[in-house]
Structures are given as structure tokens and as C-alpha cells.
Amino acid sequence: MGLIVQKFGGTSVANAERIMNVAGIVTDTYKKGNSVVVVVSAQGDTTDDLIEKAREINPKPSKREMDVLLSTGEQISIALLAMAIEKLGYPVKSLTGWQAGFVTDSTHGNSRIRRIDKERLTNELDKGNIVIVAGFQGINRYDDITTLGRGGSDTSAVAIAAVCHADLCQIYTDVDGIYTADPRLVPNAQKLDEVTFDEMLELSSLGAQVLHTRSVEMAKKYNVNLEVLSSLTKRPGTVVKEVADVEKMLIKGVAKDDKVMRLSIIGVQDIPGIAFRLFSALAARKINVDIILQSVGRDNTKDIAFTVGLDHRDEAIQALEELKVSMGAHEIVYDDNVTKVSIVGAGMATNPGVAAKMFEALSDAGINIQMIATSEIKISVLIRKEEGPRAVQAIHDAFQV
Ligand code: ASP
Ligand code: MG
């Protein structure tokens, strides 16, 4: 018995039958004597459809009005799920984000949660109600509706779990957990029983799109017990926690991120301050840089290459063009026909030879590595885009994860 937060994604509430299924899961948990807070996303493709509707009327709507529109998707879901639970005969109350006390900053479309005023929520729980909360939304200090960014309902759920000190936060989705690789690329990928928060953070930011990255950051910060599982099967899912059994498995997963590009500035002066000027210009434009490679200087010049997310393509090229002359560069080269393939595992920090094994697998597959980056628990390589799927399979086979 305890407090359990359950989050259901869009596919889990896509139609009436699925909603009744979710109502069954929720009331089963409640029947066992738990207090239950449920967070839901908009049904199926509702959010995409709403974006399309807006575009038909105004291709450049204000972000404020966009948030008013997009928040309606989750409001539909909470009412329908509450009705389903009423039908099963249990006490239930639905709350929008603002009724549930979500106060955010004012970055419309990508707001951060400032605090949750949880009185209303805890009052409803104290009255014995199952509480259904609309994910992805809040209100800023001017009482305007805000949204947390695409996929943000996960973060709503973890935030409630953190603030209410829930015993468990279950994220129900359409896959039954976190896999060692994307099962569409690697048919023999395995489901993981557990991963650490750090591994999950790397995996979600590397393109394993199961959890909203901010939800994992928050779960780590507040040590929320997190479990990812399917609403459509009754199998156990993947537990995300602080320390997992690192001895058991060296590598937890192989991830691929196609949304990257490589930029190189060729022949800049080989003097102090060049890297500083370059990367502060990118930082000023809020462009995140990932892998960085600087060549050894020769004839007083050097080359610097780095990767950025594809969504920053134009701004990054613009920044380099502006710096080119003053840095004495000959040329700017960019390539978006690249992909980043990474292995993640807390066990690699204490095991030598992991990088060698990964590079051997790529070499055997005849795949050329353009750039390499490492951290304590991750090794990433940049390769040609069309070789990505083959690289993931080859590396997965080599580690037999
Ligand atoms: N409905 C929102 C979206 O599609 C939020 C979410 O699903 O978490 O991005
Ligand atoms: Mg999601």
C-alpha cells in the first residue's frame, strides 16, 4: 500500500476500448489499497492533428495561443478516463494541469515546471478519489496556459511523484520497456530488467525515444522509483534506478541518432583563444555542441570539426560564416549525411577494452569512423548515415547485449 503515480501515453488511451483497459489497470491498483494519481497524454495523434489545424489557419501562430490549443488534447483524455472509471464504480476526479497546481515559467511550448501547489491534489486523494491529471500542461505566473514540450507528460508524472513522495512512478507506454537497441533495427534486441538513471539519460538523449529526457533528469534528482512498462501486455517492464547491477551487463544498449550534422572550419590560426571564440559564438546562439575534434597545428594553422543537432543547422552555419574571415579560415565544410552511433553502460568505466571491441566490430563491418567521443559511460562514433543500421547490428552482435 502506498502512493502510486501511473502515466499513460497517447497510444494507451487512443480509443474507447484502450481507455477502458487503462481504467482497469488503474482501478486494480486502487483496489489493492493504494492511492493513485494518473497522468495522461492526448489520445493517439491528437497533438499532431491540433498542430495541423492551427497551421491551416495561421502558419505562424503565437506560442501562447498554440499552448491554449495543444493543452485541449490532454483535457479530453482526463475527462474520458474519469468517465471510464466512474463507469466501473470507483470515486474519481479529473484535474487539468493548472487545477493540479502546475506552475511553470513562461517559455510557451517548452516550459519548465517551477513548482506544484499540491493542496488540491492531496485533498482529492485524502477523500479517497483516484485523481486523473492532464499531463504536458501548466500555468505561468500570469495565469496563461503553458505546455512542457513534446513528450512532456512523462515529466508531469515524475514531477508529481517527486513532490508527493510517491512510492512508485509507472510510465505505461506502447513498448514493454527499454531495449538494448531499437527492435526495429535489431530483431534480437533484448528488454532490460533495469538501467541506472545515468544510463537512461544517455539512452534517451541518444535517440532511444521512450522517455522524455527531462523526466529522467528529474527522477534522478529526486530519486523517484521509475518503471517503464506496456499498458497492452501484463509483462514486467524496465526499472530505472540509481544503482543497477553493473556487473551483470557491460553494455546496456546501442543507440543511433540521425539528427546530427558535422561542421568543420578549416585552416584557422593556431593561436590561443580560437576554440574559445568559436564555441562561445555557438553558445551565445544556444547551440549545443556534441563531439569536438581539433587537429594538431601545422604551418600555424589547424582545423576544428564538431557536431550539432540538425535543428540548429542554419544557425550554426551562419555563426561559422561570420567568424570565418576573422579567424583566417580557408573554408567551412558541413555534412549532414552522418549518424551518431553510441554504446552506453555504467560497467564500461571499470572494464578495459570496450572501445577496442566497438571499433573492431565496425572495422569488421567495413565501416569508417569519422569522429569519436567518450564519457565515463558512453562511447559515440560518427559514421555515414546509410551505414547506421548495419553499425548498430554489428556492435550489438559484438557485445551480445
Ligand atoms: N501530447 C503531447 C505530445 O504529443 C505530450 C505527450 O504526449 O507527452 O507531445
Ligand atoms: Mg511519450
What's the average pLDDT? 94
With helices defined by DSSP (H or I, 4 residues minimum), what is the helix count?
Answer: 11
Low-confidence stretches: none
Record field, number of beta strands: 20
β-strand amount = 25-35%
Strand order of the largest sheet: 3-6-2-1-9-11-12-10
Principal-axes geometry comes out as: globular
The main β sheet shows up as: 8 strands, mixed
- What is the structural class? alpha/beta
Query: Approximately how much helix is present in the residues?
Result: 25-40%
**Molecules bound to protein:** aspartic acid, magnesium ion
**Gap between N and C termini:** 36 Å
Output the radius of gyration: 23 Å
Model description:
The protein is an alpha/beta fold and 401 residues long. It is built from eleven helices and 20 strands. Strand 15 (289-294) and strand 16 (301-309) form a beta hairpin. Helix 5 (153-163) packs parallel to helix 7 and helix 6 (197-205) runs antiparallel to helix 7 (213-221). The model has no long low-confidence stretch (mean pLDDT 94).
Task: List descriptors.
binds aspartic acid, 4-stranded antiparallel beta sheet, 20 strands, binds magnesium ion, 401 residues, 34% helix, alpha/beta, 8-stranded mixed beta sheet
Which helices and strands appear, and what pairs or packs with what?
Blueprint: E1 3-8, H1 16-31, E2 35-40, H2 46-57, H3 63-87, E3 92-95, E4 102-104, E5 113-116, H4 119-126, E6 130-134, E7 137-139, E8 145-147, H5 153-163, E9 168-173, E10 194-196, H6 197-205, H7 213-221, E11 226-230, E12 238-241, E13 253-257, E14 260-269, H8 274-284, E15 289-294, E16 301-309, H9 313-324, E17 331-335, E18 338-344, H10 354-364, E19 371-375, E20 378-384, H11 388-399
Helix pairs in contact: 1-3, 2-3, 5-7, 6-7, 10-11
